[in-house]
Structure formats: C-alpha cells, structure tokens
C-alpha cells in the first residue's frame, strides 16, 4: 500500500491522480490533499478518501469547509497548509500538481521530510532547479516525472547507461494555434486558446502550450531532471502527440515512448515505478492511426521557445524571471486584459530588464520572482 499526498487535488492532474487511485484502491491510500478555491470538490474528495489532512487557499475557506469534512480530517490553509499537506503526514509520495512557482516551498518541504516526489509542477524546477535537485540528492529522494514528455524520457532511459545518451527530443503538439500564422495570432481569443488539440488540461498550461512556453519550461525541466546540456535537448513538432518523446544514443539508436494522450499513464507510472499496472487509457493502434507527422521547430514562429533556451543557457535567475513573467502574462490574458501576442512581449521586456544573479539562493530567487511579477503586471 503506497501512501500519497496530492498538492492541487482539484485540478486536472490532481483529479486524474485520484482516478489512478480509484483504479487500484488496494495499492494506494490518500493521506493528504491540498487545493486552492474549489471547496465543493475538495469536500467531496475528503469525504471519499478520508485523508488525515487537507488544505485550502485561505482561512475563510478553511472555516467554511471545516464543518463538512470527516471528523478525522484536519483542515489547514494558505502556504503553511500546503507545507503541512506536503510534509506533515506519513505519505511516501507527494504528487506536486499545483500550478505555478507557488509549488516551490511545499515541494522543498516534502523533499526535506524525505518524501518521494511525483513532479507535475514543472515551474518549480524552472524557478529553482539547482536547489531542488541538490536537496533531493542530499536527502536521497527520487523525483519521478509526471509530465508526459519527461515520463517518456525516463522510461526510455530505464536500464540504459546515461553516458551513452547523445541527446533527447521532446515532442510538441504545437498547441491550439499551430495552423495559424503570426499575423493571424493578432485576432485570437481566450476561448480559442483554451482548445488544446490533444490534451485536456488546466487553463494555464493550455495557454503555455499555444505560446510554446510549455515546451520551453519542459526543456529547462529536462535539463534539471536528466542532467543534460541544453545542446542535447531538442524539440520536434508532432501534431498527434503519440510519440511522447525519445532518446538518441551514441550508437544512433533511438528509443521512443508512445501511447494515446492520457495523463493517467505517466501519473500512474510515477506512482508505481519501477512496476507497471493496468491502466484505463485507450490502447494505441498504429494501424488505425496510419500516419504520424513531424516538423522542425520554427523559432521565429514560436519566439518564447527561443527565449526559454536562452534563459536556460544563461542560468542563474534568468529562468525564474522567464517563468514569473509568463505566469503574470498568462493570468492577464486569461482575464482578457491583454492580447495573446502581448504574452511574449511581456516576457521579452521582463527579460530585457532582468539583472542576472548567478547561482542564486532561495532569497534571491524570491526577490527576482517578485520583481519580475511586478514589472509584468504593469507592462
Ligand atoms: N494538466 C496536465 O495534463 C499537465 C499539467 N502539468 C503541470 O501540472 C501542474 C498542474 O497543472 P493542471 O493540473 O493542469 O492545473 P489546474 O489549473 O487544473 O490545477 C491546479 C491545481 O492547483 C491548485 N492550486 C492553485 N493555486 C494554489 C495555491 N496557491 N494553493 C493550493 N492549491 C493551489 C488548484 O486548486 P483550485 O482549483 O481548488 O483553486 C488546482 O487543484 C502545472 O504545473 C502544469 O504545468 C504537466 C503536465 C501535464
Ligand atoms: C500532457 C503534457 O505533458 C503537456 O505538458 C503537454 O505536453 C502539452 O502539450 P504540448 O505542449 O506539446 O502542446
Ligand atoms: Mn508535457
């Protein structure tokens, strides 16, 4: 029986993690759950899974839900509540599925208390990858990727000698606007941007996918997870999202991981590794699909990916600034305050103003994050 805690249990990854639990109730026990503001769903989850601890975004929400959850479930709130859920139970594994760099503190707390991490929250590694990885190594904690591309790479590397890896390729669907020219992007709406062609995901990552920021974050995430140079990490447009990513070895062999686009597969693998278990995902039939398509990535069409590579190579606080600017810009786009193309303008302007700090500590990262957010919110 594996005991798990979920940070972001009411979101896309959180609810699919609970689907995996439902598929294998004899294998998993839910110890703790954290959410932001979706109290109805959190109450439902608390009643169903009877966790020892839950947390919501604010004290008001905690007071509101307390009378409605099981007697054995303690209610916490805010960033301290998130840390309590991450580190304050007997959970073996914490699935980090909150959205944004708000997940950093609780991920570090989980690592500090020796929990294995099922990492969906890529912004944490983008913001402070060197600190997260260093602390995980020091604590002997595994960080198991949930992100589909990174799970694919992790699976392809299983049993391989890491020194024989020539490079990896992350596949990208191209997002909601992959058929549009930059000219046509001037007119797009929030509603259209939220229609991802292959995956059903939360709103922030769906916009990130359309701007190609998501792939930029994933390149940086791969750098930290697999210890690869940026020159060894490539991105390929693959509209069907069937090949989830692949590894090329020094003998020119390529090992890829394929499957229908269903996040329950990588989520489950992160929870059962090194074992596998049956999954409700639809089986892949290449015969039915017939053809797969690939296109070289066009950095002029998707400048956010170029900026992500530049920040990753620069290191220091550059990736923190990139991430923070993007989080604010996407939130503003979702509130319909700015146009779609303004997202990349804001990121570029924040990076232009950014003063890089090498090998930053957590305080310097927090300062960069705050400054970048402040600037991004007024541009
Ligand atoms: N969705 C996907 O398929 C994939 C997602 N990821 C990554 O996983 C992460 C989660 O994405 P996704 O599930 O799509 O996002 P969603 O927006 O669907 O869910 C986010 C979750 O985080 C919670 N949350 C947000 N802010 C806070 C906060 N301050 N304190 C506590 N909880 C908070 C939300 O709670 P509430 O709703 O109650 O407010 C919700 O449960 C992201 O980093 C994303 O990049 C990676 C690969 C695939
Ligand atoms: C499911 C998943 O892992 C997402 O991060 C996905 O990668 C988004 O798709 P694209 O970024 O390729 O559009
Ligand atoms: Mn992904």
Automatic annotation (TrEMBL):
Pathway: Isoprenoid biosynthesis; isopentenyl diphosphate biosynthesis via DXP pathway; isopentenyl diphosphate from 1-deoxy-D-xylulose 5-phosphate: step 1/6. Gene3D superfamilies: 1.10.1740.10, NAD(P)-binding Rossmann-like Domain (3.40.50.720). It comes from the Bacteria. Residues 4-129 form the 1-deoxy-D-xylulose 5-phosphate reductoisomerase N-terminal domain. Mn(2+) binds at residues 147, 149, 218. 1-deoxy-D-xylulose 5-phosphate binds at residues 122, 148-149, 173, 196, 209, 214-215, 218. Residues 143-226 form the 1-deoxy-D-xylulose 5-phosphate reductoisomerase C-terminal domain. It catalyses: 2-C-methyl-D-erythritol 4-phosphate + NADP(+) = 1-deoxy-D-xylulose 5-phosphate + NADPH + H(+). NADPH binds at residues 10-13, 36, 38, 121, 123, 202. Its cofactor is Mg(2+); Mn(2+). One of its GO terms (molecular function) is 1-deoxy-D-xylulose-5-phosphate reductoisomerase activity. Its EC number is 1.1.1.267. Residues 258-374 form the DXP reductoisomerase C-terminal domain. The keyword DNA damage does not apply. Keywords: Isoprene biosynthesis, Magnesium, Manganese, Metal-binding, NADP, Oxidoreductase. NCBIfam families: Dxr, PRK12464.1. Catalyzes the NADPH-dependent rearrangement and reduction of 1-deoxy-D-xylulose-5-phosphate (DXP) to 2-C-methyl-D-erythritol 4-phosphate (MEP). Belongs to the DXR family. This is 1-deoxy-D-xylulose 5-phosphate reductoisomerase. The lineage of its organism: Bacteria, Bacillati, Bacillota, Bacilli, Bacillales. The gene is dxr.
């Amino acid at each position: 029986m594996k005991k798990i805690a979920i940070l972001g249990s009411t979101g896309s990854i959180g609810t699919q993690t609970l689907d995996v639990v439902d598929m294998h109730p004899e294998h998993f026990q839910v110890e703790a759950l954290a959410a932001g503001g979706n109290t109805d769903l959190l109450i439902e989850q608390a009643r169903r899974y009877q966790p020892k601890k839950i947390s919501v975004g604010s004290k008001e929400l905690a007071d509101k839900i307390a009378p409605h959850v099981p007697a054995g479930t303690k209610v916490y709130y805010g960033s301290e509540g998130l840390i309590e859920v991450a580190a304050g139970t007997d959970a073996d594994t914490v699935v980090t599925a909150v959205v944004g760099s708000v997940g950093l503190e609780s991920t570090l707390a989980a690592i500090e208390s020796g929990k294995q991490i099922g990492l969906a929250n890529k912004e944490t590694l983008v913001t402070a990858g060197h600190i997260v990885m260093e602390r995980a190594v020091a604590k002997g904690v595994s960080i198991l990727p949930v992100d589909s591309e990174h799970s694919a790479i992790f699976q392809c590397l299983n049993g391989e000698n890491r020194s024989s890896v020539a490079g990896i390729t992350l596949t990208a669907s191209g997002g909601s606007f992959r058929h549009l020219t930059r000219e046509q992007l001037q007119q797009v709406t929030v509603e259209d941007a939220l229609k991802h062609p292959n995956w059903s995901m939360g709103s922030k990552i769906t916009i990130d996918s359309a701007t190609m920021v998501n792939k930029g974050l994933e390149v940086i995430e791969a750098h930290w997870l697999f210890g690869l140079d940026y020159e060894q990490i490539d991105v390929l447009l693959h509209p069907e999202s069937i090949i989830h990513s692949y590894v090329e070895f020094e003998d020119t062999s390529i090992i890829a991981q394929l499957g229908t686009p269903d996040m329950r597969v990588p989520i489950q693998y992160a929870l059962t590794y090194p074992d596998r278990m049956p999954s409700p995902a639809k089986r892949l039939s290449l015969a039915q699909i017939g053809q797969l398509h690939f296109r070289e990535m066009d950095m002029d069409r998707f400048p956010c990916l170029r900026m992500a590579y530049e920040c990753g190579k620069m290191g220091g606080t550059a990736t923190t600034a990139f991430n923070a600017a993007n989080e604010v810009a996407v939130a503003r786009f979702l509130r319909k305050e700015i146009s779609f193309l303004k997202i990349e303008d804001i990121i570029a302007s924040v990076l232009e103003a950014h003063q890089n700090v090498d090998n930053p500590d957590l305080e310097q990262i927090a300062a960069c994050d705050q400054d970048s957010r402040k600037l991004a919110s007024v541009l």
